[in-house]
């Protein structure tokens, strides 16, 4: 691949060291206990003080794989502890992005450990811009692999800080091979928001293909002759894998409903009425309620399916009162 003139100053940055990112808190048992609970780690060396006293360490230690946690920013972006550097090692990614490589994906995250970290230690890390590759062509697109090395240290009174671990972090900054089209804009110049597409799998594809054909398809078990919704890979009644579908009439009644007021989620109606509909065939499904007076919604009211196509690409089943559905189709 050809080397670009704009890459020269970036390559000259390789080897640059960035300042300290300091931990907000000392290594402490409360955070270790919570981390172990979340991660399902039950090693008593981390949470049982009496057990740890009898170990080779003589006290509690922190799980090695928790190393990154100690120096994370606070809840808000870039809210690092006082004394941390303001120099951003990810600046190199912005420089590459400015040359037409907008996408990024992490490809390597490799932690190595020098020793266990004990309670009361105060950690920090520094970052080195370690490498940038030649331009590479991948299935994702064309771009550059950028490698950063984070070195973690524990401070001590002697002034000779002790290295406790290292993180190699590599990302791919690239031009997508199949770029996503820019969103349409409204008359006001704002991006036009489309409805989110449903997740479609081998188990649910028949349902969405049916919607495109104006059919309400409900999964059917050939072994026990029962219906189920939502679709699943196995019958919920007899656990058979022998599944097909049957066409539903599309008629039913309102079993339950909610009118969503907040948050406002475009492009959905506001307020947005959502119903749980019990079909004549006995199964229930949730769907947006259509052409309905929200103040008149009542449990048990008769409903009928209405297929609507959105954004010229996605057909969904909506439900309307029987009379309203009939009127809208005439």
Automatic annotation (TrEMBL):
- Give all residue intervals belonging to the FAS1-like dehydratase domain: 14-148
Top-level taxonomic group: Bacteria
Q: Which Pfam families match?
A: FAS1_DH_region, OB_ChsH2_C, zf-ChsH2
Parts of the chain that traverse the membrane: none
ChsH2 C-terminal OB-fold domain location, by residue? 246-308
Using the record's annotation, list all stretches that form the ChsH2 rubredoxin-like zinc ribbon domain.
208-244
Query: What's this protein's name?
Result: OB-fold domain-containing protein
Organism this protein belongs to = Shewanella submarina
């Amino acid at each position: 691949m050809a080397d670009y003139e704009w890459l020269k100053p970036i390559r000259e940055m390789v080897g640059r060291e960035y300042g300290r990112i300091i931990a907000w808190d000392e290594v402490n048992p409360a955070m270790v206990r919570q981390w172990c609970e979340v991660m399902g780690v039950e090693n008593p060396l981390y949470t049982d003080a009496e057990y740890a006293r009898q170990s080779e360490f003589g006290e509690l230690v922190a799980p090695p794989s928790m190393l990154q946690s100690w120096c994370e920013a606070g809840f808000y972006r870039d809210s690092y502890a006082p004394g941390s550097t303001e120099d951003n090692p990810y600046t190199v990614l912005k420089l590459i992005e400015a040359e037409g490589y907008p996408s990024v994906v992490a490809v390597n995250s490799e932690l190595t450990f020098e020793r266990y970290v004990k309670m009361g230690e105060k950690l920090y890390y520094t970052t080195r811009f370690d490498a940038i590759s030649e331009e590479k062509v991948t299935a994702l697109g064309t771009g550059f692999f950028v490698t950063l090395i984070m070195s973690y240290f524990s401070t001590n009174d002697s002034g000779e800080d002790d290295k406790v671990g290292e993180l190699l972090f590599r990302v791919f900054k690239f031009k997508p091979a199949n770029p996503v089209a820019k969103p349409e804009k409204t008359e006001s110049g704002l991006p036009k928001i489309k409805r989110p597409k449903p997740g479609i799998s081998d188990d649910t594809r028949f349902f969405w293909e049916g919607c495109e054909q104006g059919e309400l398809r409900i999964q059917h078990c050939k072994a026990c002759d029962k219906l189920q919704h939502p679709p699943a890979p196995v019958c919920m009644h007899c656990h058979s894998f022998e599944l097909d579908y049957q066409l539903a009439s599309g008629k039913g009644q309102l079993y339950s409903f909610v009118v969503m007021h907040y948050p406002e989620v475009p492009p959905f109606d506001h307020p947005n009425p959502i119903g749980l509909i019990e079909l004549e065939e006995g199964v229930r499904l949730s769907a947006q309620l259509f052409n309905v007076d929200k103040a008149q919604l009542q449990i048990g009211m008769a409903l009928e399916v209405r297929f609507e196509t959105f954004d010229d690409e996605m057909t969904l089943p909506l439900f309307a009162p029987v009379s309203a559905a009939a009127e809208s189709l005439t």
